[in-house]
Amino acid sequence: MSFIAASSFITTITSVFLGFYIYYNNRKPLVNITLALLCLSVSVWSFFYGLMILTPNYNMGLYSARIHNCAAMLIPVFYLHFVVSLLSKGKEQKHLLVAVYVSFIFILLLSMVFPHYLIINVSPRYTFRYYPNPGILFYSYGMLWGFFVIYSIILIFFELKKCTGIKRNQLLYVFIASIVGFAGGATTFLSVFGVYPFGVPFVFLYTATLAYSILRHRLFDIDLNLYQKDDA
């Protein structure tokens, strides 16, 4: 098994455990629900990425590539919703959230009806037996993916500048986890332009950093609901 595939499956396992841990410990706050959904979408994304580059079967490689990219469409949706809930900006970002959900769900439905417009086929690339050759929907959702992920991280950055003490430490963990995780995950998009997906193993650090943050916060009687208000 390649290191990239192994790291993808490790990310899958840690994301599933983190998502269930967050949800079942406190399933009422929206910030917990959206973070759990984010973890679930990351786990599906990473599992089918690992399966895609590991399988010896062409059809399995093609289906895995398509499912992998469909799961990727949900990541910026749940991430933005998690961030605005964490920062209690649900009301002021309401229209943007609606636009994000509508945009990605529309592209997701198109990808399910016309899968060849998302991923045309798979073929050997780099050291992998099967790797996706993208269609027009891949580029469409890829640009939106990058925009909304960056926008969400910017929201955290500006909130960091206003916060102090415990609140700032909490946000700092989320900010660092986001930078590392999404920078690593973005290499899977860039790989279609000739960039080796070297950042995939770093996606694991996203869940690892969040898990460490949760444990640390519990030690100091702080939880993920610090920012949660009823307006999100």
Report on this model:
72% of the residues lie in helices and 6% in strands. Strands 1-2 form a two-stranded antiparallel ribbon. It has a single domain (3-219), classed as Up-down Bundle (Rhopdopsin 7-helix transmembrane proteins). It is globular. The protein is built from seven helices and two strands. It has helices at 3-25, 30-54, 58-86, 94-113, 136-162, 165-190, 203-219, and strands at 119-125, 128-134. Helix 1 (3-25) packs parallel to helix 7. The longest helix is centred in the N-terminal third of the chain and has 29 residues, at 58-86. The protein is mainly alpha-helical.
What structural keywords apply?
2 strands; single chain; two-stranded antiparallel ribbon; globular; Rhopdopsin 7-helix transmembrane proteins; 7 helices; 232 residues; mainly alpha
- Average pLDDT number: 87
How does the overall form come out from the CA principal axes? globular
For the largest beta-sheet, the strand count, sense and barrel status come to: 2 strands, antiparallel
Radius of gyration based on Cα positions: 18 Å
Query: What CATH architecture would you give?
Result: Up-down Bundle
Helix content: over 70%
Tally of individual domains:
1
Helix and strand topology:
Elements: H1 3-25, H2 30-54, H3 58-86, H4 94-113, E1 119-125, E2 128-134, H5 136-162, H6 165-190, H7 203-219
Antiparallel strand pairs: 1-2
Helix pairs in contact: 1-2, 1-7, 2-3, 3-4, 3-5, 4-5, 5-6, 6-7
